[in-house]
């Protein structure tokens, strides 16, 4: 996806940010490029580090990630959790297998539960498993046409003060001139979040756009 700031500024910001899992993430990024058809789906370093910092601030017991891909964001989220568990959901067994290997190498097996299946079905199952306990942290980074449905599924389950993060909300700038179905889906989703009285939100221009929404 498009980086919305010059590369030199991006590199400068990265150099002045706390690094985590440097060697492991470099290998994961290389494997993602070599073995997947859309390696750009992997979150950027800045987004991963921001997610980790937010998780440390929220201190979630129940965290959910919709869209595992090869595990970059899951590594940052799982490593930042001091208690509880991250459940990460995807429908692709091949990319999920890569993620599982890196979660194991990082020693995060006890913190991260990878689930294969349709996200809405898995979310229904998790609701029963939690037995009434709310979600504390959610990261949405999956098929763009599903964003609105995922939002509707998780917002009622998030506790007051909990956080929902959504990636790719600027969609390489195509939100300003939507053409494809995915373009229009992101535009509609952004309008939906902006009008939702259950949350307060800020849309950041980091990387491809990241919305942070706090449940009221």
Give the structure's gist in a few sentences.
This protein has 216 residues and is α/β, with parallel strands linked by helices. It has helices at residues 7-15, 22-35, 45-58, 72-80, 93-105, 119-130, 147-154, 181-194; strands at residues 62-66, 85-90, 112-116, 135-140, 158-167, 199-204, 210-215. The protein has a 7-stranded mixed sheet with strand order 3-2-1-4-5-7-6, with helices on both faces.
Overall 3D geometry? globular
Oligomer: single chain
Terminal CA distance = 31 Å
* Count of helical stretches: 8
3D architecture notes:
This protein has 216 residues and is α/β, with parallel strands linked by helices. Helix content is 43%, strand content 20%. The protein has helices at residues 7-15, 22-35, 45-58, 72-80, 93-105, 119-130, 147-154, 181-194, and strands spanning 62-66, 85-90, 112-116, 135-140, 158-167, 199-204, 210-215. Helix 3 (45-58) runs parallel beside helix 4. The model has no long low-confidence stretch (mean pLDDT 94).
What's the arrangement of secondary structure elements?
Layout: H1 7-15, H2 22-35, H3 45-58, E1 62-66, H4 72-80, E2 85-90, H5 93-105, E3 112-116, H6 119-130, E4 135-140, H7 147-154, E5 158-167, H8 181-194, E6 199-204, E7 210-215
Parallel strand pairs: 1-2, 1-4, 2-3, 4-5
Antiparallel strand pairs: 5-7, 6-7
Helix pairs in contact: 3-4
